[in-house]
Structure formats: structure tokens, C-alpha cells
Amino acid sequence: MDKKITVTIDGQEVSADPGQTILEAARNQGIYIPTLCHYSRTTNVGACRVCVVEVENARSYVASCCAPITPGMVIRTNTPAIRAAQRMIVELMWSSGDHNCLTCEQNGACELQDLVYRLQIDKPRFPIEHPAYGPDSTNTMITRDLNKCILCGRCVRACNEIQVNEVLDFANRGSYAKVGPAFDADYIDSACVFCGECAQVCPTGAITFKQAKFAGRPWELAKTRTTCAYCGVGCQIDLYTKDNKIVKVMGNREYGQPNEGSLCVKGRFGMDFISHPDRLTKPLIRRRKGEDFQEAAWDEAYAFIAERLAAVKKEYGPDSIAGLSSARCTNEENYLFQKFLRGAIGTNNVDHCARL
Amino acid sequence: MTNSFADYAKAKMIILVGTNITEAHPVASTFVKDAALAGARLIVIDPRRTDMVDFAEMHVPLKVGSDVALINGVMNVLIEENLYDKKYVDSCTEGFEDLKKKVMEYPPERAAEISGIPADAIRELARKMASVKPAMLMYTLGITEHICGVNNVMSCANLQMLLGNVGVECGGVNPQRGQNNVQGACDMGALPNVFPGYQPVANADARAKFAKAWNVKSLPDKPGMMMPTMMKNLTTGKVKGFYVFGENLANTEPDIKHVEHELQSAEFLVCQDIFPTETTRFAHVILPAAAWSENDGTFASSERRVNRVRTASVPPGDAKPNWWIFKELAKRFGHEWASASAQEIWDNEVSVLAPSMAGIKYARLENDGLQWPCPGAEHPGTPTLHKGGKFTRGLGMLKAIDYIPPAEVPDPEYPFVLSTGRRLYHYHTRTQTGRSAGINDLLGEETADISAADAQAKGISDGEKISVKSRRGEVVVKARVTKEIPPGLVWMAFHFREACANWLTNPVYDPVTQTAEYKACAVRIDKLR
Ligand code: SF4
Ligand code: SF4
Ligand code: SF4
Ligand code: FES
After folding, report:
1. pTM of this prediction?
2. Do B96 and B137 reside in the same domain of the chain?
3. Is B203:B192 a contact under the CB 8 Å cutoff?
4. CA-closest residue to ligand 4 atom 1
5. Topology (CATH) of A131-275
């Protein structure tokens, strides 16, 4: 490790690693600097400039997410001038979009809204003029309302750098700039694979999960960390639930291995089967071939199974019974299933669909 | 996997064999792409031109099922040109002389004839592989779903040991598991020959230990039947009672017509599931189970990581957690099981009985889980197996392996090879993804993927319904004309009932693992009249 560097942030002497940005050095000390375009695991582009700080002897304010520290640097993050600059930036963003929080799904979880509050802005000093784009709600998973886009580019970088799906990009420049798939296509008509990463990283309500709309406010949802039920990568995910329904599935950048906060389409959008009306809700028994299934109480079902399996075992021996376990279910359940066959029935006839 | 997903993005060279990683393991594929963008060298060995080829410096489109011949050819070059890791081979492995003798029978010219990869390309491939160290090899079912699946796996291991790539970070032989808990089902002894933690049932000490823990007088010592044998014995009458827990055999197994006949023959069939499926139609009893989000527990991922699963919702109606069902059933057979929660099952039974998991307790799994082997309470888990080239059995075994062709090869009547697998947007027989609104919009029906050349020769246009027929069945399915597929190949998945590839697939199995040859059978394709 290279030697530590000492810098001064808000009057505090701070020792930091060479190569760290001002933002990183400050955050390590618990010093708050607002950010919008900065996003972990993507390049720092310095697009929004809401992270500006004063650096002594620098000609202008410095975007702290991009600027590396140098020995002896004297940095101020919270002067009135800095706050005024940040307010100006946020007011410009506010006034150039349709930030109507009344109907926004992101209300309560929006980074722009949080900044407005934190910087104590009552209303923007500029008239609100938004581009009046039409919505993209052509698919059942992701909705876009680019009138709420602050052009931070997080979605573009997440799609290209984190997922490497290379679908999103900026079109046009300046005040006509717009993010989206090539040729301004809707997601469903593009090469998008619906990993949902762009919606997860979007700080505002510009890209949101459609099935979560009107399904619960952020503060009403319960969050549960669990492991994805699909492939063998074992992604760590957060389930957001309300009234016993899974409202949305999110990755979490605070979690580490194996997925570091990313998901794929199945983990993201494949979970609503849980509350599908086809679910089996009662034991079903058919006493004779050809008969219809009859609903039964659990005790009746257990007694029926025990009676039939015991009869088979008695007449033909334990090895005339076999069981297939499930690679979809938990370790504990697999353990008990083989324990049941080996210990209670007395056969090693247990296997599962491993080879699939 | 010998190694970990954390290695992917850091790897210097990645060799993907028989794995369409972007569709089957999407998040893992993002790390492979990250590595490629950061300058790692990527080689894709696959009959199909998968998406990952865009990031690769070399695509090796071998003929379906020719893996052993290709790898023998590569090893021939490595040995002939003295490019292999002699030091590693001498100190960490045995069997080199046998291997050498065998691969000398596979000069690149012969390997080329079998695999369809030109001899010079095989030489180039070998030189590339030897030029970077370490290289990481990943494979999926393209390797295992053949009658020579075990041979294919051993060939991958041979190659990586010859290159000295096993036992180091960013190296190793890495089978990626297709299902969330295949690894765990194996670890837990849901296999006919081993108890949890891979302790053989044939071992008297292991039997005594489990008998004591489970409070039974004795346990059976003869390994049981594997799935295909169980199924076959439903018709011979050797298996009378069959208990199917959370599997939809009627769609997942090769040759559906025959599978349904077998299920129909069961004298007594219990199905435990969350949905009615094609398989539950044959049951005598269907038990409604709690689903994944309605229950606590753990899964073990491909990288041997034990991760927590947590309860986020309550089951509908009378549906019950699986563990509760098994516990109640055991009671009816006179067994009182003490553990009354997933945590108690793990902490008091699994981790006590399986030495490789002794150090894994729920209290340690709160965050990012733990990778077994984890033999003690202080042990940090094992991201890389065989560290420093030290193998569990002492020396790594190099094995001489011969090529054998797939059981069914094209002929004039069935001139195409059908290969099967998964697609990105669905999972297995769609019992789950088929009931997820958005996902069905992305992929609403099965297709038969064919090459532009074959489409043209047959006068088939993209999206046209065609017939795909094998000796076992026929399906009518939309043709998808794509550059992913080489001429002579048809590719389908098993997600949709109607056009399920398994109406066509060949029920022949690897003799050791009884894995079915899903990756190769012979079919014909025809325009509909
Ligand atoms: S859509 Fe969201 S993430 Fe993308 S640029 Fe706009 S505000 Fe940023
Ligand atoms: S959903 Fe994924 S692939 Fe589609 S645009 Fe967003 S980040 Fe890109
Ligand atoms: S989110 Fe996707 S990649 Fe991750 S475990 Fe689930 S299915 Fe696999
Ligand atoms: S966060 Fe630094 S410029 Fe946007």
C-alpha cells in the first residue's frame, strides 16, 4: 500500500489513500456531500456537479466525485457559497422536468426530492418547462417517463458498464438530450433484456417498475433479504412486500458476493408466481385411478399416504419405494426428504433432477 | 465450482465450454463481460454463436458432442509443443503417461475430423490457452448432458491440470449450476449413494453415525436407484410407491410420451408442489407446499456458498412448509423428529453430521453466506478448492479418455442434430415464470432455432410454423432463423408444454451419472403441408 495522504476537510485533518477522490475521502469520514450522477461500479463522469466543493487555490468549484485528493489539499464542503451553487443546480433540474411528486411512484424514495428537502428549497426560481415526452409504457415491467429525467446518465452507465448489455445511450445533445435505446425505441422493441438495472439505479421517477405502481408507497413496503429462486448464481435480493404480495425485487449495493447488487430478468420480474391464483391450497386425494381429486384435510392425507406406503413396504420391501427430491427447494427440506426415505422408509432410493 | 464468482471479473483468461452464460447465468455473465472489457482474453467453445462470442477473441464452433476429441487434440498440441505446465504436472498430478499415450492418438488432424474445427485452429487454440496463466474454465450442461458427460467433465479437468490452472485464484474447473439449489440437494444427500456431506451409505461408520443421530436401528447399505432407473422400474413393478417432491418430470425428462407412460404405471404416486403440473395429473395424493418466499432455509449456490432464504410472505390456504410436511409424515411412521424450524434442522443436524459444514451455523449466515468446506466455527470458508494444487485425494488424477459419438447421430431419414437447453426468459417447465406477467410477454412460445442456410434450403421463413420430428415424437413449432445456429443443427428449449423439446429427446444416459443426452439426438425438419 502506498503511503497515506493528509488533507483537510471542513477543518478536520483527514488521512486518506492516494488515488481516492475527494468524495471518497469525505465519505470515509462520515462527511456528507450530495451526489446524483455518481454511482458505484460505474465511471465518474462529473455530469451533474451537485457534488461540488471548494478547494483552496483552485480557480473554480471542484466536482468532488471526480477529483483525486492531493497532499495538503484544503477542502470545504458546506460553505454558504457551495450550498447556493448546489441549490442552483437542483432548482434547474426541478424546473426543467415534470417533477410532480403527487403522482410519482418514486415519491419518498427519490434522490432529487431528498436533495430539494435537504437543501431547503421551497420552489424553483425558474418557470417549470418540461419537454413533454410521451411515456413508454409499452411493456408490463418497466415504465419510463423521461420528463422526470435529470440526465445523470446512471442508467446508461449501469446498462453499459455494470450489466454490459449496451442498450442505452444518450441521443442528441444539450437541452434536447435524451436517454434510451437506439433509434428512440421503446424498451420492448429494443435489444433490452429487462434486467431492470436502469430502473434500480435511476435516482428519480424517470424509470420505474410498472408492477410496483400503485402497489404501495415506499414506506409501506416491508423489505426482506433473501436468495434468488432461479439459477445457481445465488444472487442476493431484497423482496419488497405489502399485503402478502411481492411488489418488487431489488438488488442491493450494500451486499457483496456473488452479485454485488445486480439482478437478471428472472430474479427481477419472475417472482409474482407466488401469489398466482393457481397455487395449490388444499391436499388433494384420489383413492382410485380415474376418479377425480377430492379435497382433504392434512390428517386424512397423511393417514392415506402412510397407509399406502406402509402397505407397499410390507408387501414388497422398502426398496419398492423411491423418492425424487427437489433442486428448487432448500437444503433443510432436501435433508429431511432423504432422512425420511432413509430413516423412516429404509431405502436409499432418493435422487433429484441434478442433471438438468 | 472449484473457484468463486468473485474471480470472474478479475480473471486474465476465461474459457467458456458448453455454456450460454448470458442466458443461463445472466449475472455471472456480466462479470465475464467486465473481465473482457478490462482486457481479459475470452475463448468460447460452443456449437452455437452465443452472445458471448461478441466479446471473445476466438469462437470454436465444434460439432455437438465432440468435446473429448477437441480437448484431446488441444492436449496433444500442448504436449507435442511442450506448452503444458510440466512442474505442476510432475508435482501435483498422476497419470500423465497414460494421458499422453491416449492424446497422442488424437493429433490435431484427427481431432479436426471429429470436431469440425480445422487442425490449425486447434493448434492456435492450444497455444492461446498456454499463453496466459492462470486461465479459468467454466462449463454448464453442454458438457454434462451427453452419454459421455462424465468423460467430458474429466477432459475439462485434464486440460486445466495440464495447464497448471487448478488450485489458484481465477483458475479452476467451474461447472455453473442451472438450478438454485442443485448444489445443495447434492450436498444434503438427495443422492442414492451418499448421506449429507457426501458420506457414502456403503460406509459402516457413516451408517452408524446417521443411525444414531436419527434414532434408528440401522440404515440401508446398498446404494439406491438413480432417477432414470426409478422411472424405468415404475413399469417393471419394482418401484410401487413413488414420491415426487417439487419436480415436473412429465416435461423435464427425455421422451415425454414414454415418461407419461411410466408415471401412469406408478401404483401409488405422491406429488408435493406449489402448482398443479403435468406431473401431478398422475398423482394419487397432491400435497400443497409453501413456496420459496414463504419459508426460511438455505440454498447452496454453484460456488458452494450457503446463502440464507428468508420468509417474506405467508402461504395460501392450507399450504404448509415442506419441512413441516416431512416431519408430520415421519410421525405417522413412528419417528419423532425434534427439529422444528429450518434453523434447528441446519444448526442441530446438518452442520453436526456433515464435517465439511461443521462451521456453518445460521448465526454466521446473516450476510454474504459461507462457502464450504468450512470445517470449524472460526473457519472463513473456502473460495478456492485444491489450493496450491493439493487435491483431496492427494494428487490430481489425469485420465486417458476416448471420444465416443452421441448415441443417435444424423442419418438420411433424420438428418439434423437437435440440441436443447434453457432460454433467458424462462425457467424449466414455466410452472413459475409462466405465471409471471412480464416474463410471458418477453417470450410467449417456443421456437426451433435453425440456420439461415437450412431455412433457405428447406424454403422455411422466419416465424413460420414447421414440424420437428424424431424417432420418439413430433412437435409443430415456430422456426426462428438465426445466425447463432450453424447449418445442420436445430436448437430448442423445454419450457413450453406444447412444443417441448422433450417430446423429441433421446432417453439415453451417461453410464455413471445417468444424465440424459439432452444435447444430441437426430431429427428432421419439414415445412407444414
Ligand atoms: S433516466 Fe434516470 S438514471 Fe437515466 S439519466 Fe434520467 S434520471 Fe438519470
Ligand atoms: S433493463 Fe437492463 S438491458 Fe434493458 S435498458 Fe435497462 S439496464 Fe439496459
Ligand atoms: S437474479 Fe438471475 S442470475 Fe441471479 S440467481 Fe437469479 S436467475 Fe440467477
Ligand atoms: S455526483 Fe459528482 S458530478 Fe454528479
Report:
1. 0.93
2. yes
3. no
4. A35
5. Alpha-Beta Plaits (3.30.70)
